[in-house]
Amino acid sequence: MKRTPIKGIALLGALILSASVHADEAKKEESGKDIAYDRTKGNCLACHAMPGVADDQQPGNSGPPLIAMKDRFPDKKVLRAKIWDATASNPSSYMPPMGKHKILTEQEIDKVVDFVYGL
What we know:
Cytochrome Bc1 Complex, Chain D, domain 2; mainly alpha; single chain; heme binding; 45% helix
């Protein structure tokens, strides 16, 4: 059977796409902690102290410390709503509305909520 150049190109394209998909899967998935600490994403440390933060990370203190979160937010949905848009429950809040302004994706907010809720 004789191969045409078009079939060869299609096969090569499929191989490249397959390699790309496998490379993406091999990347480490970001955790809620990664997102919360990332200065280009959640940047929670800019305003909040948290347990286990190294001194060289210099957490801020303009927001409340993120401690005893399960006691402070027995309903995890309330914490998620606060991270989504803190101004909804407190119009004078200066916390960025992470979801409302699309600073974080829905999945990233869920990961951050899971991380923060465990503090």
